[in-house]
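User: Last request for today: this protein with pyridoxal-5'-phosphate, please.
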Amino acid sequence: MNGFEDTAAAGYGDGTRAVRAGLPEPVKNEPVLPGPAFAAHFHLPGDVEGPYAYGRDTNPTWTLLERAIGELEAPGTDGTDTVVFASGMAAVSAVVLSQVRAGDLVVLPSDGYQVLPLVRAQLEDYGVRVRTAPTAGDAQAALVDGARLLWLETPSNPGLDVCDVRRLVDVAHAAGALVAVDNTLATPLGQRPLELGADFSVASGTKGLTGHGDLLLGYVACRDAGLAERVRRWRKVVGAIPGPMEAWLAHRSLATIQLRNQRQWTNALAVAEALADRSEVAGLRYPGLPSDPSHEVAARQMRGFGGVVSFTLPDRAFAERFLTALRLVEDATSFGGVRSTAERRGRWGGDAVPEGFVRFSAGVEDTEDLVADVLRALDAAGSGA
Ligand SMILES: *Cc1c(COP(=O)(O)O)cnc(C)c1O
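Assistant: Here's the final one, the structure of the complex with pyridoxal-5'-phosphate:
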């Protein structure tokens, strides 16, 4: 077996590719996935040469993880244009701040991740112009004239709107703009932005990529080496590097990403279908529901619809009773973990959502147990319990 086996060319499915992703050539009497390399510096006699010299620049545990993520984001590539970071926001900032300069125009979604308004403020402090439009209906397309970077988030968090990546890439590239897609919600198994034409696929590995809620991580997968070089230089300058332990845990988790994602997607669809029949539920969104406004575009460009469902309960008190009554679903932020979580998103104050708005993240519990828990909690919340 070679170090880099092109598992995509071999025609293997996602599960097969996931368990092999990023593994080095096997060495007799050595572990199949080498343990984390805890090193601030590496033995370096004489001239500075070879791949590993100082731990802020490179680390063999990152190399294997980058290879693994690259193989999933862009099957058939070897991951050399993928760069891992300490968190999703470190990865987001690395793309935005390494690619734009004063006077440039950046187009952001108006309904994206709740930290984007802070990114906007930072960019404006640096003299970068920012325009925003909603994800739905490809509304950002109307703003790309003269832009340097178009930032997409699809499906958007938490509203779960979807935009047509291919169409927006065509419009942006014609206008001379680069395109980055936040792929956090979909994971590389659910969507491959680089294959849809994007220049960057960026994500928080904290969520469904690693899926155990026990680490923070981010990555940027780039279309080409030149773009990756600037992103890597930004990581060196800012030092937003993942610890070797986090990188190793993330790689270990990738082996089960297909199992986890498939159950999460099945559970999310089952929960959405159950909620669709309930009169106390409004504004139900799940791109996998055929009746969802996002479904048509999502079905064209996604390979799976994600594990997040959002909906609105009558008011804040109702939503709080619902969350308290759930037994299998933790009241917690974040999403994509093996244990289901849900939260009343309005408690953060950052998203433009109603007081009763709930973001629900389906875990890998047995589907019948999870649906029964959700329906029972709705009944309890409705009876005022
Ligand atoms: C969580 C999240 C981020 C930020 O990731 P961190 O790992 O928390 O820094 C970025 N984009 C989206 C869509 C997210 O959900």
